[in-house]
Amino acid sequence: MITPLSQKERNELLSHVSEEQKEFLLNGLKRSRQTIFGNFMLSEKVHAIKAADEIELLEEEQDVVDWMIVEFVDHGLGNRLGKCACGRSLRFEFTVQHTKTKKTIVYGKDHLAEFLNLDVRDIDGVIYELNSIDFELDEMLMKIRDKDYGYELLEGLSEYPKDIQNHVDHHIPLLQRQIKRLKKLIEEKKLAEELEVFKLANAKIMKRLEKEKKEQQSREQEITEKVHAGLPPNASLGEIAYTFVKNGLSSATEISHHIRNHFSAEKRMSISVMERPYIYIDVVTALMEYVKQDYLIFDEESSGIEDCVFFINPEAQPENTTVIQETLF
Q1: Domain containing 68: what range?
Q2: pLDDT tens, 232-253?
């Protein structure tokens, strides 16, 4: 909360604003006060009145619903320039008026509380709300003086809340509470934009992965067809694995997956952390038989616990692979 201006300071700043700005500020102040007065008088707390300061009320003036607070003046800290109906000097002046008879009475907060049959703390609550309105008037006046309108925060936004648009239309600075709300809107917009970017990027990634998956499936189908075409009837596991190596596959894990997926082999998967096909060890054992006979090269540098890598030995090729390994199915 900013330090409130004195009425003299407020009037001085008001004298330097444009007529359009002054009309907006003062009308806004008046409407805000009327809203506070109206809400307070219609609240459940205000349900009866009684005469205060020996002011007599006519019979038709006994109904609380016909009374309204129509004005409030805060003369400032240490000032008692107001005058209560009882004659006491006041800092806070409330003017109440009967809507039908137009009887008008000026009370301080103590006698207003007595008039409305309320605790004085309820009047303090109204004063707090009224002061909040005055503080906002002061904030806008000082920002006009300092040419601090806050419009730079609107850049990049195609639309914004109606109350903010109203300030822009009348060349009125944005209030601190509006700026806080605006910053939240900007953060939400940025988050939404980032989310949209993420969605677009994710869609591209998914499209690419789907394309790669289809390409992988196509390659897998192609190589499997070649292997099938190069195998003798009732081929052994070793013959199948060796034929995969001949067609360009080097990884025993990958070969195991192909055999599991496309041949009549054990379909279980290992429950170990490797999560390899259950036939992996049999595939490695079968391929090692070809290594022993120099038909394959076991790449010890590239091989490890995770996988074993095999290549065709170009210097020695078996004429008939069926004699190399018996069927392991």
Answers
A1: 7-148
A2: 888 999 999 999 999 988 899 9
Confidence of residue 205 (pLDDT cuts 50, 70, 90): low
User: H or E stretch including 225?
Assistant: helix 176-229
CATH of the domain at 260: 1.10.10.10
Q: Please report whether residue 113 resides in a domain.
A: yes
Q: Are residues 123 and 239 in the same domain?
A: no
What percent of the chain clears pLDDT 70, i.e. is strictly above it? 91
Q: Residue 135: name the closest of 36, 12, 17, 1 by CA.
A: 1
Q: Which amino acid is at 65?
A: V
Q: Which pLDDT score, from 0 to 100, does residue 23 have? A: 95
Q: Is 107 exposed, middle or buried (0-12, 13-18, 19+ CB in 10 A)?
A: buried
Residue 249 lies in a domain: yes
> CA 321 → CA 4, 78, 143, 257, 314, distances in Å?
98, 110, 91, 21, 15
Q: In this structure, how many other beta carbons lie within 10 angstroms of the beta carbon of residue 253?
A: 18
Q: What pLDDT was estimated at residue 3?
A: 62
Both structure tokens of 22: 């002054």
* 274 in any annotated domain: yes
Q: Which two tokens stand for residue 319?
A: 């004429």
Residue ending a domain, choose from 130, 148, 166: 148
Check whether residue 138 and residue 17 sit in a common domain: yes
Which among 80, 95, 89 is positioned nearest to 130, based on CA atoms?
A: 95
162 domain-assigned = no
Cβ atoms of residues 296 and 283 within 8 Å: no
d(CA 262, CA 282): 16
- Count of domains in the chain? 2
pLDDT value at residue 5: 80
